[in-house]
Specification:
2 copies of one chain form a homodimer. By secondary structure, the first copy, chain A, is an alpha/beta fold. Chain A has 3 domains: about 45 residues, lambda repressor-like DNA-binding domains (434 Repressor (Amino-terminal Domain), Orthogonal Bundle); about 100 residues, Response regulator (Rossmann fold, 3-Layer(aba) Sandwich); about 150 residues, Rossmann fold (3-Layer(aba) Sandwich). Chain A is about 40% helix and about 15% strand. Chain A is built from 14 helices and 13 strands. In chain A, strand 9, helix 12 and strand 10 form a beta-alpha-beta unit. In chain A, helix 1 crosses helix 2, helix 6 runs parallel beside helix 14 and helix 11 packs across helix 12. The longest helix of chain A is centred in the first third of the chain and has 16 residues. Chain A is elongated, with a radius of gyration of 25 Å. Chains A and B meet through helix 4, helix 6, strand 2 and helix 7 of A and helix 4, helix 6, strand 2 and helix 7 of B. The structure holds a DNA duplex (16 and 16 nucleotides).
Amino acid sequence: MSKPTLKSVAKALGVSTATISNAFNRPDQLSVALREKILSSCAELGYDGPNKAAQSLRKGSSGIVAVILSDSLEYMVSDPVASQFLQGVARELERQSKHLLLYSGSADNLDSITDFVDGFICYGAPRNLKLIEQLKRCPKRVLTVDFDLPGRPSVNIDNEQAAYDSAMAVLKPGDRVAVLGLRLIDAADSRTVGTAPLWDNQSSVSHRRLDGYQRAMQQLGLTLSNELLWHLPESNQACAETAAKAVLSQSPAPTVLLCMSDLIALSAMRVALALGLRIPEQLRVVGFDGIEETLRYHPTLTSVWQFSDQKGEAAARAFQSGQDDNQLLPYELRLGESS
Amino acid sequence: MSKPTLKSVAKALGVSTATISNAFNRPDQLSVALREKILSSCAELGYDGPNKAAQSLRKGSSGIVAVILSDSLEYMVSDPVASQFLQGVARELERQSKHLLLYSGSADNLDSITDFVDGFICYGAPRNLKLIEQLKRCPKRVLTVDFDLPGRPSVNIDNEQAAYDSAMAVLKPGDRVAVLGLRLIDAADSRTVGTAPLWDNQSSVSHRRLDGYQRAMQQLGLTLSNELLWHLPESNQACAETAAKAVLSQSPAPTVLLCMSDLIALSAMRVALALGLRIPEQLRVVGFDGIEETLRYHPTLTSVWQFSDQKGEAAARAFQSGQDDNQLLPYELRLGESS
DNA sequence: CTGTTAGCGCTTTCAT
DNA sequence: ATGAAAGCGCTAACAG
């Protein structure tokens, strides 16, 4: 015997298909008693509700929201900031009785899933630029986070201002400044930006942060030399160590490290300490994001906290709300022992 | 103007719907020239292929495979073993041009997704036991990993034998042994198992590993005292530290720590070193899983390597193959400086 | 409160 | 090589 369908169940119970459908979708359309009876009979027959694929075809919506990650699952999954964000999205979606489909930003296209989902929440500009084109002309709802798409709603923080604030909190006149940046150019390894063209991927957060750092430096009469502006392809320990070692072994050594993630800042501090540098006396360090781990480490890190889980919730809520505005979330500069 | 459909495109091009369908799904059914023409016209019209929801309804398959995690996304995502596994699944599925839907094992039911997917790969017994019941009577393909369901294909390693091997590699006569186990009883905190009933969740890997440890101990004439058998609710640093501190501060202190994950073993070694214990002279430690991080840490860890990424690939392949056997994958005991 | 009916967008015989 | 037509399982109007 194959799986029961709405029709087969209706026949078995001697009622019309509409009645069964209503029993599941519109309780107000029939008596409580009848509904109870139908529901329990269905349970016995092994029918656990209308087929969702058919339902989705008919209604035009499925209750599934896709989250497009900026990179592969494997990478995102190991980043505490991203997983905080996902946690928030999952929590809010659960409240809405919706479901979450995780999709890789390095995938080739959205074709395989667009027809199954109600829309997309894009967390960071997808690594594969083809996806951006597809999202632009997608008839479904698209909400971006940490970047913008013309005419689409978004959720973000003011990265430029936050970076500016963090730099102002740590910089002093006469400082020699190094920046450990994230995905500033198109290169797969950690290296100084040098003369490589800045790779502006949909006005990424990194470039906005760099703008903020530079505004602060300008204001203090400081300049950033090209060899001290580093590009890291990923926010992880390995990339950060390479960069930190190179930067800190220069002479004269930098007195301040502006880091575009807390993970980078933490690794940099480890390297600095291993090199015998004293923080903050000889080197001040500032991070970005706000992750738990920095609270357990000494010296604690001065950083911009952006509450990624709340950002995830906000994104899911904004997705649902249907409003098309560009939402700016609050952030908080928290001073630690590193500055 | 709304999204073009197969029908609207057919009308626009003056051919039948079947022809358009064939152009996309069965190239052999029409001339190359015509197909080319149709495909390019479709691209112009902004039609990028048949609607997948309708296709799935009609064909009864969608090309999406759900991976049911044993716990919430947020938890799994931070576990290196799980993310290795997912990596492998994702890689193999990509080869098959299929897609991956991640689903939480603590979700309430599968109803919301069953109709959209071709089947389920369950990575570990889901935390929510209701899901197990649903999987048992699911008409779609179900493959389990790291646990078994009657009549369903599975992919696993021989946990009992692997645990036995690892214990035999480290144990000596006269040893005082402590076990840092994973999810052995139904408790949310780290604690000794004591007299609590072992919670056999579908013959979990943990219990098989415990069996293996005990066989080895028996063979060497050793016994495991109840206060030295620990239950940890999760494989993470916090849980492991609690347990390790308690276990190592006993006197006489244990001489061997059998740990059910590398993450646990690593944390335990940190605690031991902080306590001034020398490894392996005063304390030998063995782990389970095989994760990269143990190679960078000193002392390096003796552990059972189970190649989770290959396990993921194997699972996705077995899912696709249609074979219903229970596959046992190889593992490898690797000796490190900790034993 | 219940039944009838017309599709949602597609694939697939079966004719032509 | 192509077209007509029958559904896949369901929902929403509408009529009763």
